[in-house]
Design a protein that fits this description.
By secondary structure, the chain is an alpha/beta fold. It contains eleven helices and eight strands. It starts with 11 loop residues before the first strand and ends in an 8-residue tail after the last helix.
Protein backbone atom coordinates (compact mmCIF):
# COMPACT_ATOMS: atom_id res chain seq x y z
CA UNK A 1 0.00 0.00 0.00
CA UNK A 2 2.98 2.32 0.37
CA UNK A 3 3.71 4.86 3.08
CA UNK A 4 1.28 7.40 4.45
CA UNK A 5 2.36 10.17 2.10
CA UNK A 6 1.63 8.03 -0.92
CA UNK A 7 -2.01 7.67 0.19
CA UNK A 8 -2.64 11.41 -0.01
CA UNK A 9 -3.43 13.33 -3.13
CA UNK A 10 -0.66 15.68 -4.33
CA UNK A 11 -0.45 19.06 -2.66
CA UNK A 12 -1.90 20.79 -5.73
CA UNK A 13 -4.89 19.52 -7.73
CA UNK A 14 -6.30 20.99 -10.95
CA UNK A 15 -9.82 20.67 -12.29
CA UNK A 16 -10.49 21.07 -15.99
CA UNK A 17 -14.16 21.99 -15.76
CA UNK A 18 -15.84 23.36 -12.65
CA UNK A 19 -19.44 22.39 -13.27
CA UNK A 20 -21.36 19.79 -11.32
CA UNK A 21 -18.66 17.12 -11.65
CA UNK A 22 -15.64 19.34 -11.07
CA UNK A 23 -17.11 21.15 -8.07
CA UNK A 24 -18.20 17.82 -6.55
CA UNK A 25 -14.63 16.52 -6.81
CA UNK A 26 -13.41 19.74 -5.19
CA UNK A 27 -15.91 19.31 -2.36
CA UNK A 28 -14.69 15.78 -1.68
CA UNK A 29 -11.06 16.85 -1.54
CA UNK A 30 -11.80 19.94 0.52
CA UNK A 31 -14.21 18.52 3.09
CA UNK A 32 -12.62 15.19 4.09
CA UNK A 33 -12.22 15.56 7.89
CA UNK A 34 -9.27 13.18 8.34
CA UNK A 35 -7.13 14.32 5.40
CA UNK A 36 -5.22 17.49 4.60
CA UNK A 37 -6.97 19.51 1.91
CA UNK A 38 -4.87 20.07 -1.21
CA UNK A 39 -4.58 23.41 -2.95
CA UNK A 40 -7.17 23.34 -5.75
CA UNK A 41 -7.20 25.34 -8.96
CA UNK A 42 -9.78 25.05 -11.73
CA UNK A 43 -10.50 26.10 -15.29
CA UNK A 44 -13.93 26.71 -16.76
CA UNK A 45 -14.63 28.88 -19.82
CA UNK A 46 -18.09 29.67 -18.43
CA UNK A 47 -16.42 31.95 -15.89
CA UNK A 48 -16.52 34.59 -18.65
CA UNK A 49 -20.30 34.30 -19.03
CA UNK A 50 -22.70 36.48 -17.02
CA UNK A 51 -24.98 34.74 -14.51
CA UNK A 52 -23.17 31.45 -14.89
CA UNK A 53 -19.89 33.18 -14.05
CA UNK A 54 -21.33 34.59 -10.82
CA UNK A 55 -22.46 31.13 -9.76
CA UNK A 56 -19.07 29.56 -10.55
CA UNK A 57 -17.17 32.27 -8.72
CA UNK A 58 -19.38 31.92 -5.66
CA UNK A 59 -18.91 28.14 -5.64
CA UNK A 60 -15.16 28.53 -6.10
CA UNK A 61 -15.00 30.96 -3.18
CA UNK A 62 -17.04 28.57 -1.03
CA UNK A 63 -14.58 25.71 -1.71
CA UNK A 64 -11.44 27.88 -1.73
CA UNK A 65 -10.73 27.04 -5.36
CA UNK A 66 -8.65 29.31 -7.60
CA UNK A 67 -10.64 29.80 -10.81
CA UNK A 68 -9.26 30.48 -14.32
CA UNK A 69 -10.96 30.93 -17.68
CA UNK A 70 -8.39 28.98 -19.73
CA UNK A 71 -5.56 26.47 -19.25
CA UNK A 72 -2.20 28.10 -18.54
CA UNK A 73 1.07 27.79 -16.65
CA UNK A 74 -0.87 27.46 -13.39
CA UNK A 75 -1.76 23.94 -14.54
CA UNK A 76 1.87 22.90 -14.27
CA UNK A 77 1.74 23.25 -10.49
CA UNK A 78 -0.70 20.34 -10.16
CA UNK A 79 0.41 16.77 -9.54
CA UNK A 80 -3.15 15.52 -10.09
CA UNK A 81 -5.53 16.77 -12.79
CA UNK A 82 -9.20 15.89 -13.20
CA UNK A 83 -10.84 16.50 -16.57
CA UNK A 84 -14.59 16.95 -16.07
CA UNK A 85 -16.09 18.58 -19.16
CA UNK A 86 -18.77 17.54 -21.68
CA UNK A 87 -17.60 14.42 -23.49
CA UNK A 88 -17.49 16.19 -26.85
CA UNK A 89 -14.89 18.58 -25.42
CA UNK A 90 -12.68 15.99 -23.69
CA UNK A 91 -10.10 15.65 -26.44
CA UNK A 92 -9.87 19.38 -27.14
CA UNK A 93 -9.36 20.09 -23.44
CA UNK A 94 -6.59 17.48 -23.23
CA UNK A 95 -4.94 19.10 -26.25
CA UNK A 96 -5.19 22.56 -24.64
CA UNK A 97 -3.79 21.25 -21.35
CA UNK A 98 -0.91 19.28 -22.86
CA UNK A 99 1.65 22.16 -23.06
CA UNK A 100 1.24 22.82 -19.33
CA UNK A 101 1.26 19.27 -17.94
CA UNK A 102 4.46 18.56 -16.05
CA UNK A 103 6.15 15.14 -16.18
CA UNK A 104 4.73 12.77 -13.57
CA UNK A 105 1.34 14.47 -13.35
CA UNK A 106 -1.59 12.06 -13.08
CA UNK A 107 -4.45 13.02 -15.40
CA UNK A 108 -7.84 11.48 -14.54
CA UNK A 109 -10.35 11.79 -17.38
CA UNK A 110 -13.88 11.58 -15.92
CA UNK A 111 -15.62 12.56 -19.14
CA UNK A 112 -18.28 10.50 -20.89
CA UNK A 113 -16.43 10.06 -24.16
CA UNK A 114 -15.95 7.21 -26.65
CA UNK A 115 -13.09 4.79 -25.88
CA UNK A 116 -11.17 6.00 -28.93
CA UNK A 117 -11.28 9.60 -27.69
CA UNK A 118 -9.99 8.45 -24.28
CA UNK A 119 -7.08 6.66 -25.94
CA UNK A 120 -6.27 9.76 -28.00
CA UNK A 121 -6.35 11.89 -24.84
CA UNK A 122 -4.10 9.34 -23.12
CA UNK A 123 -1.56 9.65 -25.95
CA UNK A 124 -1.52 13.44 -25.53
CA UNK A 125 -1.03 13.26 -21.77
CA UNK A 126 1.65 10.58 -22.01
CA UNK A 127 3.50 12.58 -24.70
CA UNK A 128 3.76 15.37 -22.11
CA UNK A 129 5.20 12.92 -19.57
CA UNK A 130 1.99 12.51 -17.61
CA UNK A 131 0.09 9.37 -16.55
CA UNK A 132 -3.44 8.92 -17.87
CA UNK A 133 -6.27 7.24 -15.93
CA UNK A 134 -9.65 6.60 -17.53
CA UNK A 135 -12.50 7.34 -15.11
CA UNK A 136 -16.12 6.34 -15.65
CA UNK A 137 -18.80 7.89 -13.45
CA UNK A 138 -21.43 5.21 -12.86
CA UNK A 139 -24.14 7.39 -11.42
CA UNK A 140 -25.00 11.03 -10.85
CA UNK A 141 -22.89 13.75 -9.23
CA UNK A 142 -26.14 15.66 -8.73
CA UNK A 143 -27.55 12.86 -6.59
CA UNK A 144 -24.42 11.64 -4.75
CA UNK A 145 -21.83 14.42 -5.12
CA UNK A 146 -18.27 13.05 -4.82
CA UNK A 147 -19.56 9.76 -3.40
CA UNK A 148 -20.88 8.73 -6.81
CA UNK A 149 -19.38 5.37 -7.88
CA UNK A 150 -16.35 5.81 -10.17
CA UNK A 151 -14.59 3.05 -12.12
CA UNK A 152 -10.90 3.59 -12.92
CA UNK A 153 -8.76 1.97 -15.61
CA UNK A 154 -5.14 2.46 -16.54
CA UNK A 155 -1.63 1.81 -15.28
CA UNK A 156 -1.90 4.31 -12.41
CA UNK A 157 -5.50 3.51 -11.47
CA UNK A 158 -4.50 1.76 -8.24
CA UNK A 159 -2.57 4.80 -7.05
CA UNK A 160 -5.45 7.15 -7.82
CA UNK A 161 -7.84 4.75 -6.10
CA UNK A 162 -5.78 4.82 -2.89
CA UNK A 163 -5.67 8.60 -2.96
CA UNK A 164 -9.40 9.02 -3.45
CA UNK A 165 -10.53 6.28 -1.06
CA UNK A 166 -8.65 8.09 1.69
CA UNK A 167 -10.84 11.14 1.00
CA UNK A 168 -14.13 9.25 1.08
CA UNK A 169 -14.68 8.79 -2.66
CA UNK A 170 -16.33 5.57 -3.89
CA UNK A 171 -13.89 4.27 -6.46
CA UNK A 172 -12.87 0.85 -7.71
CA UNK A 173 -10.26 -0.28 -10.16
CA UNK A 174 -10.89 -2.37 -13.27
CA UNK A 175 -8.22 -5.13 -13.13
CA UNK A 176 -6.08 -5.00 -16.26
CA UNK A 177 -8.10 -2.09 -17.61
CA UNK A 178 -6.62 0.17 -20.27
CA UNK A 179 -7.57 3.74 -21.17
CA UNK A 180 -10.96 3.56 -22.86
CA UNK A 181 -12.10 0.40 -21.07
CA UNK A 182 -13.82 2.16 -18.17
CA UNK A 183 -15.49 4.54 -20.60
CA UNK A 184 -16.71 1.61 -22.71
CA UNK A 185 -18.34 0.08 -19.62
CA UNK A 186 -20.00 3.40 -18.81
CA UNK A 187 -21.39 3.74 -22.34
CA UNK A 188 -22.58 0.13 -22.52
CA UNK A 189 -24.24 0.62 -19.13
CA UNK A 190 -25.98 3.61 -20.71
CA UNK A 191 -27.57 1.32 -23.30
CA UNK A 192 -29.46 -0.17 -20.36
CA UNK A 193 -29.92 2.90 -18.16
CA UNK A 194 -30.97 5.39 -20.85
CA UNK A 195 -33.11 2.77 -22.56
CA UNK A 196 -34.74 1.99 -19.21
CA UNK A 197 -35.35 5.69 -18.63
CA UNK A 198 -37.09 6.00 -21.99
CA UNK A 199 -39.14 2.85 -21.39
CA UNK A 200 -40.24 4.08 -17.96
CA UNK A 201 -41.42 7.36 -19.46
CA UNK A 202 -43.26 5.65 -22.33
CA UNK A 203 -44.90 3.17 -19.94
CA UNK A 204 -45.92 5.67 -17.26
CA UNK A 205 -47.16 8.41 -19.59
CA UNK A 206 -49.33 5.83 -21.36
CA UNK A 207 -50.54 4.60 -17.96
CA UNK A 208 -51.23 8.18 -16.85
CA UNK A 209 -53.25 8.80 -20.00
CA UNK A 210 -55.30 5.68 -19.23
CA UNK A 211 -55.74 6.70 -15.58
CA UNK A 212 -53.91 3.56 -14.42
CA UNK A 213 -50.55 4.85 -13.18
CA UNK A 214 -50.83 3.52 -9.61
CA UNK A 215 -52.07 0.13 -10.74
CA UNK A 216 -49.29 -0.23 -13.33
CA UNK A 217 -46.65 0.63 -10.75
CA UNK A 218 -48.13 -2.00 -8.46
CA UNK A 219 -48.04 -4.53 -11.29
CA UNK A 220 -44.31 -3.83 -11.71
CA UNK A 221 -43.64 -4.43 -8.03
CA UNK A 222 -42.18 -7.90 -8.55
CA UNK A 223 -39.17 -6.53 -10.43
CA UNK A 224 -37.23 -5.90 -7.22
CA UNK A 225 -37.84 -9.37 -5.81
CA UNK A 226 -34.55 -10.62 -7.27
CA UNK A 227 -31.13 -9.07 -7.94
CA UNK A 228 -31.09 -7.10 -11.18
CA UNK A 229 -28.40 -9.35 -12.67
CA UNK A 230 -30.59 -12.42 -12.24
CA UNK A 231 -33.56 -10.64 -13.83
CA UNK A 232 -31.47 -9.57 -16.83
CA UNK A 233 -30.11 -13.10 -17.29
CA UNK A 234 -33.63 -14.55 -17.21
CA UNK A 235 -34.88 -12.10 -19.83
CA UNK A 236 -31.98 -12.86 -22.16
CA UNK A 237 -31.99 -16.65 -21.78
CA UNK A 238 -35.76 -16.95 -22.15
CA UNK A 239 -35.85 -14.69 -25.21
CA UNK A 240 -34.82 -17.45 -27.61
CA UNK A 241 -37.68 -19.72 -26.50
CA UNK A 242 -40.43 -17.18 -26.06
CA UNK A 243 -39.75 -14.49 -28.68
CA UNK A 244 -42.70 -15.53 -30.94
CA UNK A 245 -45.25 -15.33 -28.11
CA UNK A 246 -43.75 -12.12 -26.76
CA UNK A 247 -43.79 -10.61 -30.25
CA UNK A 248 -47.56 -11.16 -30.43
CA UNK A 249 -47.98 -9.43 -27.07
CA UNK A 250 -45.89 -6.45 -28.14
CA UNK A 251 -47.93 -6.14 -31.36
CA UNK A 252 -51.10 -5.99 -29.28
CA UNK A 253 -49.56 -3.35 -27.00
CA UNK A 254 -48.43 -1.22 -29.95
CA UNK A 255 -51.91 -1.29 -31.53
CA UNK A 256 -53.54 -0.42 -28.21
CA UNK A 257 -51.26 2.58 -27.66
CA UNK A 258 -51.76 3.88 -31.17
CA UNK A 259 -55.54 3.56 -30.81
CA UNK A 260 -55.25 5.67 -27.67
CA UNK A 261 -53.49 8.41 -29.63
CA UNK A 262 -50.08 7.62 -28.17
CA UNK A 263 -46.79 7.52 -30.14
CA UNK A 264 -45.13 4.26 -28.93
CA UNK A 265 -41.56 4.83 -30.11
CA UNK A 266 -39.97 2.33 -27.73
CA UNK A 267 -42.74 -0.22 -28.13
CA UNK A 268 -42.40 -0.04 -31.91
CA UNK A 269 -38.65 -0.60 -31.61
CA UNK A 270 -39.30 -3.54 -29.27
CA UNK A 271 -41.68 -5.08 -31.78
CA UNK A 272 -39.05 -4.75 -34.50
CA UNK A 273 -36.44 -6.27 -32.17
CA UNK A 274 -38.55 -9.33 -31.40
CA UNK A 275 -39.52 -9.68 -35.05
CA UNK A 276 -35.84 -9.76 -36.01
CA UNK A 277 -35.22 -12.62 -33.59
CA UNK A 278 -38.21 -14.59 -34.88
CA UNK A 279 -37.07 -14.12 -38.49
CA UNK A 280 -33.47 -15.09 -37.70
CA UNK A 281 -34.14 -18.82 -37.94
CA UNK A 282 -34.82 -21.76 -35.63
CA UNK A 283 -35.03 -20.72 -32.00
CA UNK A 284 -34.29 -22.72 -28.86
CA UNK A 285 -36.45 -25.84 -28.58
CA UNK A 286 -34.93 -27.51 -25.50
CA UNK A 287 -37.43 -27.02 -22.63
CA UNK A 288 -34.53 -26.49 -20.24
CA UNK A 289 -33.57 -23.32 -22.09
CA UNK A 290 -30.04 -22.04 -22.81
CA UNK A 291 -27.66 -20.65 -20.23
CA UNK A 292 -26.44 -17.08 -20.61
CA UNK A 293 -23.32 -18.03 -22.60
CA UNK A 294 -25.36 -20.11 -25.03
CA UNK A 295 -28.03 -17.45 -25.41
CA UNK A 296 -25.55 -14.67 -26.10
CA UNK A 297 -23.65 -16.87 -28.52
CA UNK A 298 -26.87 -17.45 -30.48
CA UNK A 299 -27.93 -13.79 -30.32
CA UNK A 300 -24.62 -12.18 -31.31
CA UNK A 301 -25.04 -12.81 -35.06
CA UNK A 302 -28.69 -11.77 -34.86
CA UNK A 303 -27.79 -8.35 -33.45
CA UNK A 304 -24.84 -7.72 -35.77
CA UNK A 305 -25.38 -4.80 -38.15
CA UNK A 306 -25.73 -5.64 -41.81
CA UNK A 307 -22.72 -4.59 -43.94
CA UNK A 308 -23.09 -1.22 -45.65
CA UNK A 309 -23.41 -1.51 -49.42
CA UNK A 310 -20.93 0.55 -51.40
CA UNK A 311 -21.90 2.47 -54.52
Amino acid sequence: MGNEGEERVPEAVALLGFGEAGSSVAAGLRLAPAQPAPRIVAFDPAVRDGARARFLRARAQELAVGLHDSPGPWLGEAGLVFSAVPGTQALAVAQAAKPFIRPGTVYVDLNTAPPGAKREAAALVEAAGGAFVDGAVLGSFQADSFRVPILLAGHDAERVSRWLLAYGFRVRVMPGGRPGDASAIKLLRSVFMKGLEALCIECLTAAERAGLRTQVLEALGDLDSRPIGATIATLVTSHLRHAPRRLEEVEIVERMLRQDGFEPILTEATRRFFDRTVRSGPLWSDPQGPDLDEALGRLLPVTRAAPVRQG
